[in-house]
Structure formats: structure tokens, C-alpha cells
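Suppose a colleague, Dr. K., hands you the sequence of a protein chain of 123 amino acids and asks what its three-dimensional shape might be. Before reaching for any lab equipment, you can write down a predicted structure in C-alpha cell form. Begin with the sequence itself:
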Amino acid sequence: MLVALFTLWLLGGSSTCLLDYIADTRDSVKTVMVKDERQKAALITLKLMKKTAGTHNKQAGKIAKGLDKAFRDHAVSAGEIDAIWDTYFTGVDQYNHDMIELRFELREHINREEWAAIFADEP
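The predicted structure, expressed as C-alpha cells, is then:
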């Protein structure tokens, strides 16, 4: 049980906060932006962000289960566990890259004033 909790702590579990943030941003885009092609493009980008986050959460969950299983099997080598971690960290790097690219894509669809209004509550 302790191994499972440790694994979930390291992998972060499911990221509902990010999904809530994306949903809030989507609502703000609908409120702030005029309903036109730019708004539609921004909403499509936010939908891609949500899908990317969901896919990443599912993959992290599968890796957490794989790590839990590996930690329980005392015959598993350190190399096999390292391979699981390498898969996880490669996925995190790709996820971070994809989300940054999507944020830049979002920025292309929203002008400066709209951006300031949409993200006004950010610290």
C-alpha cells in the first residue's frame, strides 16, 4: 500500500485542477471574445489541451500501476524499474512540450486585450 501511495505521489495522480483551469478558460473565452472564427479556433485549441491532459493522465495511471506491480515483484531488476521510469519521464517531457505549443497556439488566436481579460485572475 505504501508503495502505491508513493507512486501516486510521484506521478501526481489525476490532474483535475488543470482540467478545471482549462474549463474556466473556455468559459472566459466564450464570455470575453466575440463569437467569430478566432473564438472558434481558441476553443478548438482549448479542447486539444483538455484531450492532451486527459491522455497524459491515463498514461501516468498505467505507468503507476506498472511501477506498483514491479515494486511488488522482488525478482524485478533495477534496470526494468529504470525502464519504466524512463518511459514516464519521456512522456512527461512530451506532454510539457505539447502543452507549451498549444499555449502558444492559443495565444495566436487571442489579442492582447482579450488575453488580459481572460487571464485577469492569474497571479
